[in-house]
Amino acid sequence: MDIPDFGSDLPGVVARTAIVYVALVVAFRILGKSSTGQLSTMDLIVLLVIANAVQNAMVGENVTLIGGLLAAAIVLVLDRGLHFLIERSPFARRVLEGEPAILVEDGTVDEERMRKEGITPDELAMALRQNGLLRAEEARYVYLETTGAISVIPYRDDGPGSGGGQSPRAAG
Asked: Three-state SS for 150?
């Protein structure tokens, strides 16, 4: 299989950088939300290694200041362009960012959803503790947000099973 060599001239740097950026956006979107939340030490190491690995793919043999600045400018322009598109298109927002996932509903943990989203029971327990709860049964809803953060909505004074409040699916 022959892979085209876009060269290391400035138009080649633009093409290479755009391809790498789009490939990484797609890869991180496929990996899911949990990989983009708060970075652990291992996540940070992976991010740094990826940055180093794709650097040569973006600039090739062009190690000039202009080549590096052009690659950085292309990444920034593409990033702004995607944010512009996301702000104006609900379809693009759904495709590129996804939608929040309900991990706990009315105190019941959706273990299949947690497994699919890559959230461990320990991560759920930590999010619950950070919100002053000890068990999932104390939460009305727990969401995995599109940013990778976990939001916890505890029961109000009406307590578990009281029926107070409308499901976000029904409110839709």
From this structure: strand
Cα 89 versus chain centre, distance: 18
Range of the structural domain that residue 73 is part of: 10-97
- DSSP state letter for 158: T
Asked if residue 172 has pLDDT above 50, the reply is no
Same domain, 37 and 108: no
Domain limit, last residue, from 68, 97, 126: 97
Token digits of residue 160: 């578990």
Q: What is the pTM (predicted TM-score) of this model? A: 0.65
- Length of the chain equals 172
Percentage, residues of the chain above pLDDT 90: 45
Distance, CA of 123 to CA of 137 (rounded, Å):
16
Distance of CA 18 to the CA centre of its chain: 20
